[in-house]
Amino acid sequence: MALSVLKFKLAVLLCCAALTLAESLAAQSTPSPVPSPTPSTTEEWTAWRNSQIKIILQPTLDFKGEKLISREDVIQKAAAAYNIIEPRVEQDPSLVNKDNPTGNALANFYKFVKAIHWMALKDGSGHDTHALGYEITDRDFWSYARDAVIFPPLLRSQDFLTKISHPSTYRDAVNMIEANNQALPKPQKWIVLPFKAQFILSVDHTTYGRLLILVPNQIAANGDKFDQWILFSIATPEMDPNIEIHNVSTIAVRRDTHTGPGITYITYPVDFSRQKDPQSGQINIVPTMLLAENTSKNCYECHKTGVVPIHPDVEYTFDPGGKLVPKEADIGSIPKRINALIEYYGPPNFGIMDTEGYGPAMGPSGQPAGLAMGPEMSPVSRRRAEDLIPRATQGLNIAPQSYDAIRYAMNCAQCHNSAKQGPLNYLLAVHSDRDVRAFEGSKGMIETYIAKGWMPPDNHLSADERKALWKCLMEEYFDLNQQSGLLIDWLKGQ
């Protein structure tokens, strides 16, 4: 598989960002009530489902004159719909069985609201219990993931944790890793990259700086083999060196003895916080889901491929005095090595999460309606509306001669599907407040990857054509104004 196909894979673990902007946006949000249904026939259930889709996916936030989906609104309203339909499903499971007309109409909608409703659950103190989106509590997820994400002893040592706590000793921390590497066989040598992230602040909302430590081919107590992608949040050179930074983010990927496309890799994403004991001064690494207030959210909402290749805004090195400085030579070589490892990961498996409930893949292969596509369309194929591109690109001055190139580039699902890289679906594939809250520049991940020319691979689109491509993909997946598109069709069982 060409490396360019993989450019949607390791970077930064997802976090909530920019609190002040988040609060400002949240203040604009007003969830609509969900009416209680009394349906019994397929027609009545279908009408109820359609009304809930409109309520749940109604754009409620206004950002610079553009209407956006509110992530939190969707969670609350999906949970309300789930609480109505779930008792009926418990009484009659055939209600969501696709083998009958009513079940076919409700099955995907039920999957969606069930997958989303977990994030609305709270304990008696009002704290989230399933913020990570799993079917088990966040605390139980720690027990599930623990063996895979426990740091190697060096990274848990007080010496290392002290050195990585201040910019003046970052170089010393890296020296410890380099010394450790001397005794390791080549397949287990660690790869280190200090960089500034393109996209999101650390989970503790302090920095875009990261020290990536890739620890490959680790053997767990039960004999499973793991790669650990560990990102210590660090201060960038322009920051106050004395700012307290707590976050460490990790993704562990369980590797099979066999590798290659089609192999599913169990993925364990966990955020940690470095907590300093005020009495002893000892630094403890605590999973965020064990804190009184879990600062982490659902990683799968953006990490559709589990691990996403890295595109640093700045790569760093150290000057002769040990100070972190921008790299001036050999830029890109370490990211290339890192990304090469992900080539055979294939689709991620988040284990105790029904990722199918997050909807269909964005950008199915397609032809304009009415054109032949062979005897059978693939599961990620769709007849694309002939007027989609001119309609979605109004005002962008896109010449008709560009339409074929844009249409050809809309085939995201050719690689991003459940058999290869993992589908691009909700929340990543809809334009939401997450795009303007979590990402520097107020642009979402898909828009950024397309605008930078990183996706689709090997494309030769102009800047205007790339902008048009993003607008076409967004409108085809979910048109906020018309409440139509792939996501709506899927929710309706079509």
Structure report:
Helix 11 packs across helix 14. The strands form three sheets. Strands 3, 4, 5, 6, 7, 8, 9, 10 and 11 form a nine-stranded mixed β-sheet that branches. This protein has a two-stranded antiparallel ribbon with strand order 1-2. It has a two-stranded parallel sheet with strand order 12-13. The chain is of the alpha+beta class. The protein is built from 15 helices and 13 strands. It folds into two domains: 256 residues, no CATH class; 210 residues, no CATH class.
Features of the shown structure:
494 residues; alpha+beta; 2 domains; two-stranded antiparallel ribbon; 13 strands; 30% helix; 16% strand
SSE ordering? HHEEHHHHHHEEEEEEEEHEEEHHHHHH
Unreliable parts: 1-34, 368-379
Q: How many DSSP E strands?
A: 13
The outline comes out as globular
The helix content is 25-40%
> Can you tell me the number of structural domains?
2
Distance between the termini: 32 Å
| SS element count, helices | 15
Radius of gyration: 23 Å
Strand content: 15-25%
What's the rounded overall pLDDT mean? 86
Largest sheet: 9 strands, mixed
Structural class: alpha+beta
Chart the SSEs and their pairings.
Layout: H1 19-26, H2 42-56, E1 61-63, E2 66-68, H3 71-91, H4 101-117, H5 138-149, H6 153-156, H7 158-163, H8 170-181, E3 191-196, E4 209-219, E5 225-234, E6 247-255, E7 265-276, E8 283-287, E9 314-318, E10 324-326, H9 333-341, E11 348-349, E12 365-368, E13 381-384, H10 388-392, H11 403-409, H12 433-438, H13 445-451, H14 463-477, H15 486-491
Parallel strand pairs: 7-11, 12-13
Antiparallel strand pairs: 1-2, 3-4, 3-9, 4-5, 5-6, 6-7, 7-8, 9-10
Helix pairs in contact: 2-4, 3-4, 11-14, 13-14
